[in-house]
């Protein structure tokens, strides 16, 4: 019994700093929604669509960079300093390439949102918001490279400090640029986009400054074989399935937002409130997922399968345990939670109907997140991507679309589909973890 308590304590010590990082990053989106909510439901809907647009063009790149987890964590476990440096430097190359694609994809907002039949009254504001976010794309991806690298290596306090500084800057910039305080122009929704872009630069620069003693030996000198074609391609092949998995999971939620926009602006705004809160609590199991990937990866790098098994189980218990607690809160107090964002009756009514469903899917969301991290730590990325496709696009989206548009459930029907997709993903990935951790696992090395 003492052994399990030790495992849980150790995993908690690893996970808590990463959870704080995720909460800090997500808090910027929550603050944006809370502050812009003073402008009304249309402003909330515009920011919701803008964040959906931004995240869905970024998410493949974010997942691609998650290849850093197994490559660097397992190199750390094996004590291979040169492999750590090459992994980080290849991550920076990939981040630069991805940034160019994402910036181009954020330009045609009016055309894309119009083609997706979103509410005309929010299209212009959403497109402007997304284009303002372009200014922060490159630092966003560089931050992700350094963050993933530090998580894999162990020390993450500099990331916490950078996220804290960025949150303070974001809140201040929102106060100035959304409402025109302190002599600044009152830019409304566009001001929130500028504030977030400024915060991304501050966060990336602050992390580089705080973590330079830890990063300098892996960032420089530039290794001449960093750009070798075969190892770079192997890293892309490892990260691409994670990107596909994240994209299709994210787009399942994003498509639900589009469906809400077809119903009404109030439906979209209420959906954004419920999803914003669910996304905030999701940062905890997502952080535990990152901790699990690092801990399992380092154990495999050492050749210690037993430790990898114990780390995986401890992470699952921590993640699911927290989401059980948050689910109870969502189910018990939906109206109180919804009215923290807005008092508009139509928007609140939709949010109150959806928040309890968010409470029910908390457990499944936590389990699928943590098991994804465990599998990533082992270097297993292709099968989880297939399992996510089956869960969300074979079960969740078809069921939600049917219940939302063919039954009186409407918004609740769409969310019931999300619950079903998450439950399927959690079950399938749990089975994959049990299978994967049964036998010997070979260390990931893209250079050989």
Overview of this structure, please?
With 448 residues, the protein is mainly α. The protein has one domain. It is 84% helix and 0% strand. It has 16 helices and no strands. The longest helix has 38 residues. It is globular, with a radius of gyration of 21 Å. The protein starts with a helix and ends in a 12-residue tail after the last helix. The relative contact order is 0.14.
Radius of gyration: 21 Å
Report how far apart the termini are.
Answer: 41 Å
State the total count of DSSP E strands: 0
Task: Supply the number of structural domains.
Answer: 1
Largest β-sheet summary: none
Which percent range describes the beta-strand content? under 5%
| Secondary-structure-derived class | mainly alpha
Mean residue pLDDT: 87
Shape: globular
Contiguous helical run count: 16
- Residue ranges: pLDDT <50 for 5 or more in a row? none
Helix content: over 70%
- What is the N-to-C order of secondary-structure elements (H for helix, E for strand)? HHHHHHHHHHHHHHHH
């Amino acid at each position: 019994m003492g052994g399990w308590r030790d495992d849980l304590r150790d995993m908690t010590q690893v996970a808590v700093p990463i959870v704080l990082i995720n909460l800090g990053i997500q808090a910027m989106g929550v603050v944006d929604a809370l502050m812009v909510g003073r402008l009304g439901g249309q402003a909330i809907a515009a920011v919701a669509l803008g964040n959906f647009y931004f995240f869905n063009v970024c998410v493949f790149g974010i997942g691609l960079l998650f290849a850093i987890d197994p490559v660097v964590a397992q190199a750390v476990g094996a004590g291979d300093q040169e492999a750590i440096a090459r992994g980080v430097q290849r991550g920076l190359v990939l981040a630069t390439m991805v940034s160019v694609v994402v910036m181009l994809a954020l330009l045609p907002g009016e055309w894309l949102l119009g083609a997706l039949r979103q509410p005309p009254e929010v299209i212009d504001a959403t497109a402007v918001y997304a284009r303002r976010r372009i200014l922060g794309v490159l630092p966003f991806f560089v931050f992700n490279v350094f963050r993933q690298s530090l998580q894999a290596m162990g020390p993450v306090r500099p990331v916490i400090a950078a996220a804290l500084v960025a949150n303070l800057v974001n809140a201040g910039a929102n106060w100035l640029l959304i409402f025109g305080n302190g002599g600044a122009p009152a830019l409304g929704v566009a001001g929130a986009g500028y504030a977030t872009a400024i915060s991304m630069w501050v966060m990336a620069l602050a992390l580089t400054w705080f973590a330079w003693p830890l990063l300098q030996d892996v960032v420089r000198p530039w290794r001449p074989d960093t750009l070798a074609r075969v190892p770079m391609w192997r890293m892309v092949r490892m990260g691409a399935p994670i990107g596909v998995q994240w994209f299709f999971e994210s787009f399942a939620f994003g498509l639900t937002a589009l469906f809400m926009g077809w119903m009404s602006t109030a439906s979209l705004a209420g959906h954004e409130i419920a999803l914003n809160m669910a996304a905030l609590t999701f940062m905890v199991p997502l952080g535990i997922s990152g901790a699990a990937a690092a801990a399992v990866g380092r154990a495999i790098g050492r050749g210690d399968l037993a430790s990898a098994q114990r780390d995986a189980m401890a992470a699952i218990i921590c993640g699911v345990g927290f989401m059980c607690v948050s689910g109870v809160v969502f189910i018990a107090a939906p109206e109180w939670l919804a009215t923290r964002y807005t008092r508009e009756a139509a928007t609140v009514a939709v949010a109150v109907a959806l928040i309890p469903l968010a409470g029910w899917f908390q457990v499944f969301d936590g389990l699928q997140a943590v098991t994804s991290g465990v599998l990533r730590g082992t270097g297993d990325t292709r099968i989880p991507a297939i399992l996510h496709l089956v869960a969300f696009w074979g079960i969740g989206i078809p069921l939600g679309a049917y219940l939302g548009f063919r039954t009186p459930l409407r918004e609740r029907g769409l969310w019931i589909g999300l619950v079903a997709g998450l439950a399927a993903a959690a079950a399938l990935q749990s089975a994959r973890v049990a299978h994967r951790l049964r036998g010997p696992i070979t260390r990931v090395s893209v250079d050989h």
